[in-house]
Amino acid sequence: MSIKITADAAEHGFDAERLARIDRHFARYVEDGRLPGYLAVVTRHGEVVHLAQGGLRDVEAALPVGADTRWRIYSMTKPVTSVAAMMLFERGEFELTDPISRWLPEFAAARVYAKGSSAAPGTVPATEPIRIWHLLTHTAGLTYGFHHAHAVDGIYRRNGYEWGVPPGVDLAGACEAYASMPLVHQPGAEWNYSVATDVLGRLVEVVSGQTLDAFLAEHVFRPLGMADTGFWTDSDQLAALYSPAPGTGRLLRNDAMGAAFTSRPVCLSGGGGLVSTAYDYHRFTQMLLRRGELDGVRLLSPRAVDLMTRNHLPGDLESFGRPLFAETSYVGVGFGLGFSVTVDPVAAKTLGPAGEYAWGGAASTAFWVDPVNEVTAMFFTQLLPSSTYPLRPQLRTLTYQSLLA
Q1: Which segments of the chain have a pLDDT < 50?
Q2: Are 146 and 386 spatial neighbours (Cβ–Cβ below 8 Å)?
Q3: Which pairing describes strands 333-335 and 340-342: parallel, antiparallel, or unpaired?
Q4: Closest CA relative to residue 193, chosen from 273, 271, 274
Q5: Domain Beta-lactamase-related spans what residues (predicted)?
């Protein structure tokens, strides 16, 4: 299904002329060649009050962005997998404090990097086990090979784990590989963005007895009416993936990575594997805004959503996390169970309120949910990496400057 405007912006407290600044702002990104195309969605009180779209989903074929365009949402998969895990938690399948080695025994003897290079690391035993809440909060000590910020990142790359997994490796095999490599830090000691949600996806598989795609389809996508979301698509509406050329920023088609989403993958990545549409992800954000329920279908209790969207760190990401690439500062932003959470809007220098929760994907997609003002927003494009331009904070400013009541 295609997303469409369902209510008048003025009736929901927005100034339509100021909302149009979103269109003009991102149209410039397309006009000067920084973005191939885009789709932005703003809602309030569950109603879509603004759609802004422009440019092309496929530059070479001159195909325009449409309301039903399919997008690789990469790490916007993480909140979906986190919701799936919390559904199992609410069924009494585990406690958030349980060691993951109860279901994934390969993590029972984790080692932690202490010194040395990626070629010859020195390690020490983990002082406590990796627990389920460590996976949900990215405090497990796992990492990503593409960070290029720590010796352990290099170990991931040496083993073929940079932007994905080696050919032929499934999710179980990937988790065995992650368990064989050192942790960046002791579990719970720091925040480090990582493959933790992929491991969480594997946990969902083992606990539920279903593959991750089957579990999400049965318990999340079908109940919410997300018919066009999955780990691959053969739709001709799938947007092409692009990356900026070094030095010039000119858009280069990235079929090497983009083609991975056109057939069922061997490894079902709960951390970054989904393709979706604006309509479908809107359904997901509205379920969150309504604290676990949408159109009579309840996935989570209100208390579970409240727990997920509170800061679980002792400070913000700037003070408790490692410095990583990002197009925005981590000051004033904490992390819950699958989402970033604004804890101090003044420190974060944002017009959004405390309690807003959000995340984005590697191809510059993003969303946020504001339970204070009952506002949600989403942004879709296909430009990798997401740190290329400050699209997310710009959309946030442009949205809130138009909210007058």
Answers
A1: none
A2: no
A3: antiparallel
A4: 271
A5: 22-393
DSSP 154-208: HHHHHTT-SSS--TT--HHHHHHHHHHSPBSS-TTSSB---THHHHHHHHHHHHH
Q: How far, in Å, CA of 217 to CA of 226, rounded?
A: 9
pLDDT of residue 168: 97
Which residues neighbour 92 within 8 Å (Cβ) at sequence distance 6 or greater? none
pTM of the model: 0.97
- pLDDT score, position 247: 86
Classify residue 227 as exposed, middle or buried by CB count within 10 Å of its CB (0-12, 13-18, 19+): middle
Within 10 angstroms of residue 162's Cβ, the number of other Cβ atoms is 17
Q: Which residues, including other chains, have CB under 8 Å from residue 295's CB and lie 6 or more apart?
A: 225
Separation of first and last alpha carbons in the chain: 31
Instruction: Encode pLDDT of 327-360 as tens digits.
Output: 566 899 999 999 999 999 999 999 999 999 999 9
